[in-house]
C-alpha cells in the first residue's frame, strides 16, 4: 500500500510539472502580451509675460515679476511696450526681480534727460538706448537669456512692429519713443515711435512668439482726473486716451490681466517708484489664485 501511495503521489507531481511546462510553452509560443497603456503626458503650457506701457508707472512691473518668481511662475517669453520694454529687456537679460529693483532704486532719471533743440521731440532718447545696452553688456535681442521682443509703431505706415533681433537698446528706445517727448527713432530704414500707439499691452505679440498662456500687466493710467496743465501732460493724456481704447480689444486675448492700483503714480513721476513696486506685488498676489487655477497648479 505504501508503494502504491508513493506511485500515486509521484504521478500527481509529474502531472503538475508537466502542466506547468505546457503552460510555459504556451506563453512562449502564443501571442505576446498587450503592451501597457501609455500614461498621458500633460505638456506644460508656455507662459508669456506681456508688460504694458506707462512711463514711470512701469516700476510696478518689477513688483509683479517679484511675486510671480516667488511662486515659481517664470515666463518662457517676455514682451514689452514702452516702459514694459525697458523692464522686460532687463528681465530677459538675466536679471531677476530683486536685481531689477536694485537697478531701479539706484536709477537717476536725469541720465535720460538728453534734451534737444530739434522740433521732433523734447528728448533724443539716445541716453535711454545707451543705458539699456550698458546694463545688458551690449547683447542684441537674440542673445538675451530669455526670448524677448519689444513692440514699436512704424510712424509712416502706422503698423505695429515687433523687434526680436538686433540692437536691444535701439529696439527699447523705439518702443518707448512717445511722440512729442522723444524723437522718433530711425532704425533699419524706417521711423519708429512708441509701441503704445498700436499695442499698449502686447498680448498679441506674446501669442505670436509661442505663448499658450499669457499674463498681461496693464499699468496704464485712467484719463479721467489726470492733470493737463502743461505740454508734456497734454501729450501723456493724449496717449492715455488712445491707449485705453486700443488695449481693450487686445487684453481680451490674455488669460490673466494684472492691474496694479496706481492712481497716485503719475506717468512722469519717478519719485513714487517704491510705491509702484509694492502695488505691483499686491496686484500679482491677488491674481495668484486665478493663475494657479488656470495653470492647473
**So what's the overall shape?**
globular
Proportion of beta-strand residues? 5-15%
Average per-residue pLDDT, rounded, comes to 85
Structural class: alpha/beta
The biggest sheet amounts to:
8 strands, mixed
Instruction: Tell how many strands the DSSP assignment holds.
Output: 10
Would you list the SSEs in sequence order as H and E? Answer: HEHEHHEHEEHEEEHEHEH
- Indicate the multimeric state: single chain
The CA-CA distance between the termini, in Å, is 75 Å
What is the radius of gyration? Answer: 30 Å
Task: Please estimate the helix content.
Answer: 40-55%
Note poorly predicted spans. 1-30
Please give a structural write-up.
The protein has 297 residues and is α/β, with parallel strands linked by helices. Strands 1, 2, 4, 5, 7, 8, 9 and 10 form an eight-stranded mixed sheet that branches.
